[in-house]
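Newbie here. two chains, one complex. Structure please?
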Amino acid sequence: MDTRAFQRIYTKIEQITKATCTLKATGVGYEELAMVAGKEAQVVKIMDDQVTLQVFAGTEGIPTNAEVVFMGKAPSLKVGDALAGRFFNAYGQPIDGGPEADGEEREIGGPSVNPVRRKQPSELITTGIAGIDLNNSLVTGQKIPFFADPDQPYNQVMAMVALRAKADKIILGGIGLTNDDYLYFKNVFENAGALHRIVSFVNTTEDPPVERLLVPDMALAAAEYFAVDKHEKVLVLLTDMTLYADALSIVSNRMDQIPSKDSMPGSLYSDLAKLYEKAVQFEDGGSVTIIAVTTLSGGDITHAIPDNTGYITEGQLFLRRDTDIGKVIIDPFRSLSRLKQLVIGKKTRADHPQVMNAAVRLYADAANARTKLENGFDLTDYDERTLEFAKEYSRELLAIDVNIDTEKMLEVAWELFARYFSQAEVGMKQELMDKYWPNGN
Amino acid sequence: MKETAQHTHGKVSGIIANLVIVRVDGPVAQNEICFIQHADTQLMAEVIKILGDKAYVQVFESTRGLQPGMEVTFTGHLLEATLGPGILSKNYDGLMHDLDTMTGIFLKRGEYTLSFDMEQKWDFRPLAAVGDKITAGSWLGEVTENSIPHKIMAPFKLEGPYTLQSIAEPGAYGVTETIAVLTDSRGKETPVSMVQKWPVKKAVKAYQNKPRPFKLLETGVRTIDTLNPIVEGGTGFIPGPFGSGKTVMQQAISKQAEADIVIVAACGERANEVVDLFTEFPELDDPWTGRKLMERTTIIANTSNMPVAAREASVYTAMTIAEYYRSMGLKVLLLADSTSRWAQALREMSNRMEELPGPDAFPMDLPAIISNFYSRAGIVFLNNGQTGSITFIGTVSPAGGNLKEPVTESTKKVARCFYALSQQRADSKRYPAIDPIDSYSKYLEYPELLKTLNEQIAPNWAEQVIELKNILFRGKEAAEQINILGDDGVSIDTHLAFWRSEVVDAIILQQDAFDEVDSRCPLKRQKYMVDKILDVTDTALAFDGYEEVNPYFKRVISALKQMNYSEFETPKFKQYEEELRQILEERKTG
């Protein structure tokens, strides 16, 4: 990074911890960027002339007489069309061997959109995956995470969703991505011929953890540029937000803050909300949609990270391995898309909401029947039929390898209803059953 | 509180996130408002701690770029709401700045817009006469705001008795014009306009007394009105894990409740949910007046990405507006979603000030703060004998869905209605997911309410409700027995007990918030359906084996459900009612 002329250089650091250093300096602004011995750092605390800097790459090897230069600005990104197709690190520097991307410099982590300038999201995102399109339809301007155990194929599903979603731009924020996954994304996007509409900010597991804190802000600053200035539909992928929260807790710990639940900082909710709330639909068609990944430990959603995330995001998607059919499915019980009400039955066929609910209710009956079976009780004829239904429903609709349009999904569901149940058992509005119940049953 | 012309000044000396330390040159008050000069904008902040010549202030904005040495001006007053005609239909931020008059797509730091149009003229009609005794909150006159009679009141800040010396003739006046002059016992004159200010953290006490609530507030939500009613001037809270339907629940109440004024404080929640309100309320009809919902609504939006300090202020701003309209003799419904975010804002601040933490790192005085806030709700007899009420319903978002956390526990001590949202019900899509057995309304223990219920609805209503609860309770026990012993291990009566409670569950408890007809169920219809259900559950039925029970009751429920989906008392409704009668006839005994 360039330094300006006549910048004052400080060379006396008074205090160094693993992530921060403190020195005497004047004329410094809060959240200002600085270079400490050539490493990026940011002002996190000012007490009179004592300035505390958080060094993103860690303070290893920094001597007390290191050169400290203040940059006079908050962390920023040069935004422009040149971003498309490029791979950057957490500081917005190219890692693909290409030149620096030129453009207008904008501060990252900027202000929020005035809520009255937002538009109610109403544009359906179709993915071809029935577990999403039928049961948990996504909408532009939505923010939704996958809650997944580390061994589940969430990155694959996310890449698939991204490519099918017909977005103008896809921004990948890789937070502590393994090198293998980074290469996976790169390959998938390349093979799909989609590289020109993708911008990536990647911090891999090889990079210092605190640097990760910059990745979502970088990705979202780029997303805002395309959505606001270019009126484009932008899809942001953030994986894995659990590692982002872990980085937050490292910093707050080093700053001697009192931890709240699960050793996370008390501000975790606000910190995560500031990112996720960048998802927005504008009047002029531009939008930012965020699909994130929050990895769980042992499926525990009461942990502070998934818990706070769940309160912020508009639903969540769960993956589960269905042993009956040997495939990964989108779990219909625990998954939820809060914005689906804005589109289902409106942008899709009128019977969509009730078909969705009836199928899930019958699937729940099957789960009860399974419990009965496991406890050694006899099953009724109805129980037997729900089990059969559940298996087919899982195979033909919930599995993540399904790729059909929404109308077809509804037809499949009606066929399954008619195959296994009577109209009274399905229990929907009579007008709908009269209209859609397959004949010949 | 000092009210001097000479304001105290100070200079920024330290910054940690949104906590700024200011070195001051004169007196400052706790909770006093000050402005920090940053380039050409002024950032609003509130004093939250004073140590020697250092004032700790929480800034209602991002502190990015602030530097030591920047100028700070103290205003000499606390955080105040500006009250007057023009508040209804507005969308405010947490500090009561009008969001619609702000410029640009993004919120700009330091852009503080007026709470309402100060130029607008209103048709004023005097209500008081020269010579009348006047105290704080006395009605001086009236203007019509969105068809609601908006009383122009003597300022709440008045102390002691005054006499009305003069009052404006009927006609159009600007909000800041003097419409009355009051004199105190010493003859000192106080001019009064349509606008007044009030510090939001103080309760407005301009009323005679606050009796126990005694009247049901209809919400159109069956599981509330029928089983655990909320009352005019009552308090309730809805805790529940995410995805259990808190917000849908609150939105249903805000749309349907029998209130004159609805104030929604979206406190630290999702922006898209507020946008739902912005988009839908101007379109939807108020079921009580036929006018648009937005006309009776004011929205305070501090979404989760807006500055944290203003989040704390937002609930107080909302409560102050509610108190203002209550003083006009109106029925106000105040909804806050979610009070947990407000508590978290307190926690973030307490943490930055390095206070010793209480449970889960929340401040020690959290229970006191919460109970103090809830106590501002209630029904009151105003000084002129009229009644006004604030019904307050807050949602709580318990961390990890665990109801044993500090915010839920503190709230449970003060709120009289408890609507427990159950994850299990939500998972099986039984919405609203309010657990009928865990939830309660303490108001059902009030004899004065039971008396009005029996008058408002029907003479035997209270007993019917108890019967419904018993059926649900017996059904829960039966379900446990069936789970343990198996379908064939229990008697047919146990199956019947289970299925009767399923009927109550499917028809009374469950309600489709997205269906035009079912979403709102007026009291009269609720009473009709309760009679119908009790009729079904009282009918003795004969079965040859337990296998027959399940399909039979599925048909009963299906017929009743179609009734719920049909307009009340239409031929379609009656057709399903007849279908139900025939189904019952099939197996009726004796």
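Moderator note: The CA atoms of residues 571 and 577 of chain B lie 10 Å apart. Chain B touches chain A through 74 residues (CB under 8 Å). Thread marked as resolved.
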